[in-house]
Structures are given as structure tokens and as C-alpha cells.
């Protein structure tokens, strides 16, 4: 059984338990789905309705050790998960060992992205039923420990999909463009707001077909696969954030989050 299937099954098991509010558990980089109650009323969260019940969908942080994550007035015990490791070689050393100018640039760009992650549009309702944004081959999954030129770096908190240069990239769900740019690490970059704290981003694009402020429909072409930024070849680096936590994008495919509500 693949690690992805094990992760999914464990997530369902945690949902099935129906833990009381003082004993909630979830997996690193996963989501937890809970019926809305008074302990969440003061928090901003994405929600969905199934069988006339309103559920909160909460993104959990990536952790290397057990951590208590506070959301609203709830504490969620987040359990680490071994997603494996990934080793890549970057020939351009200037993309690995940064000079001061590039360090300052990456710091400035990270602040721009972090500020955009504060977006919580209540006029957009996420459907939690994404389509895959590009036709290609998954080259690196979420959560892998990352080594670049044999040096340990931040974990790979995205889904990499390899495809030929110029392959169309589609919006996986309805949303609004809240950021575009040409960034040091990410190259040509798009960020979409899907509403209620659910945000996705698309890196290393060859071209961008949208502009900040555009309203986007599911399936619309937003750009094309490229190899801009720090890469080893053409691919899409797809990230998904929920309540500012970077979660596993594959959780939004095949209605996996919607299936969790059937356990209550």
C-alpha cells in the first residue's frame, strides 16, 4: 500500500473517532474536518455543508515532531508523518548559495507571499473538489525531506508535476488572482484565492495568462509549464494553503475532503 493511501486512511480513522474537543488529533500536512461548534466561532475557517451540517475544514501544519496546534479555542495534536526524502542537483550554484542581493530579494518576495496568505475572502466559497492543474507525471510529492546538492533544506511542501515546456496549466477550481510575479525561487508565479482561507500557487511557469484581480473559473488556462526560477527541468510546482498552513494538494483531488464528512 502506498504512503499516500496510508495517509488518507489514517485521516479517515481520525475523523471516525469523533474525538471530544479536548482530544483532537490529525496528521502533519493533512486536514481535519469538524462539525462547527462554539469553540470555533471566533476563528476564521473554511467550511462546507453536507447533510445539512456545517463543517469546519482546518489545515494542519507540517511538523517534524508531535505538536499541539491551537485553532480557535481548540487544541489539535498534530502527528508527524514520514513522507520520504527527495535529493536534487542544481548546477547553477548562484541559485543555491545566495549572495546578499539575492538574499534580500528572496526575503522581500517571501514577505509579499506571506502577506497574500492573510487573504480570507468570505464572498468566495471553496468547493474542495479540485481538478489536477496540469496533465503530466508527478515527479515529487508533498512532504519529502529535501536535499539540494546533498545539503538539507526546507521540506518540499508542494506537488511537483513534470510536463513539457508550454503545457497548459489550468485553474483547479474557481477563484481570484491575488498575486503574480517573477520570483527568485518560484520564477513566473501565480497565486489564486479560492475563498475562506483556501489559496493555491503555481511556480516555474513559462508564461502567465492572467492578471491580479481576474476572476477565474475551474478549468481555465492560467499559464503554461516552464522552467523559470530554481528548477532542474520544466514542471509545475503546485502549493495549496488552508488557514495559512501549507497542506498536501492531493487531499483536494477526488473529493477526499468531502468524503470525511460522511464519517459523522
Give an overview of the whole structure.
- The protein has helices at 3-17, 100-116, 256-260, and strands at residues 24-27, 31-35, 46-50, 53-59, 67-71, 74-79, 85-88, 137-140, 144-148, 151-156, 159-162, 168-170, 175-183, 187-195, 198-208, 215-216, 221-225, 235-242, 245-247.
- With 264 residues, it is mainly beta.
- The protein folds into two domains: 3-82, no CATH class; 85-251, Distorted Sandwich (Glucose Permease (Domain IIA)).
- The model is unreliable at 1-21 (pLDDT under 50).
Topology, pairings included?
Blueprint lengths: L2 H15 L6 E4 L3 E5 L10 E5 L2 E7 L7 E5 L2 E6 L5 E4 L11 H17 L20 E4 L3 E5 L2 E6 L2 E4 L5 E3 L4 E9 L3 E9 L2 E11 L6 E2 L4 E5 L9 E8 L2 E3 L8 H5 L4
Parallel strand pairs: 1-6, 7-9
Antiparallel strand pairs: 2-4, 3-4, 5-6, 8-11, 9-10, 11-18, 12-17, 13-14, 13-16, 14-15, 15-17, 15-18, 18-19
Amino acid at each position: 500500500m502506498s504512503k499516500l493511501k496510508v495517509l488518507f486512511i489514517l485521516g479517515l480513522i481520525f475523523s471516525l473517532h469523533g474525538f471530544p474537543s479536548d482530544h483532537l488529533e490529525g496528521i502533519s500536512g493533512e486536514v481535519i474536518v469538524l462539525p462547527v461548534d462554539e469553540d470555533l466561532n471566533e476563528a476564521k475557517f473554511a467550511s462546507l455543508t453536507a447533510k445539512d451540517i456545517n463543517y469546519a475544514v482546518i489545515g494542519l501544519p507540517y511538523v517534524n515532531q508531535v505538536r499541539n496546534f491551537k485553532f480557535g479555542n481548540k487544541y489539535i495534536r498534530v502527528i508527524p508523518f514520514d513522507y520520504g526524502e527527495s535529493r536534487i542537483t542544481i548546477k547553477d550554484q548562484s541559485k543555491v548559495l545566495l549572495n546578499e542581493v539575492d538574499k534580500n530579494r528572496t526575503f522581500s518576495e517571501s514577505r509579499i507571499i506571506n502577506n497574500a496568505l492573510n487573504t480570507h475572502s468570505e464572498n468566495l466559497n471553496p468547493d474542495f473538489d479540485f481538478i489536477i492543474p496540469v496533465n503530466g507525471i508527478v515527479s515529487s510529492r508533498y512532504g519529502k525531506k529535501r536535499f539540494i546538492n546533498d545539503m538539507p533544506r526546507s521540506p518540499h511542501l508542494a506537488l511537483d508535476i513534470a510536463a513539457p515546456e508550454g503545457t497548459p496549466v489550468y485553474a483547479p477550481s474557481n477563484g481570484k488572482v491575488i498575486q503574480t510575479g517573477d520570483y527568485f525561487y518560484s520564477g513566473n508565479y501565480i497565486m489564486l484565492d479560492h475563498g475562506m482561507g483556501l489559496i493555491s500557487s503555481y511556480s516555474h511557469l513559462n508564461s502567465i495568462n492572467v492578471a491580479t484581480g481576474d476572476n477565474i473559473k475551474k478549468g481555465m488556462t492560467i499559464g503554461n509549464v516552464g522552467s523559470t526560477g530554481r528548477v532542474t527541468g520544466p514542471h509545475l510546482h503546485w502549493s495549496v494553503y488552508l488557514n495559512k498552513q501549507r497542506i498536501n494538494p492531493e487531499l483536494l483531488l477526488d473529493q477526499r475532503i468531502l468524503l470525511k464528512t460522511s464519517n459523522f
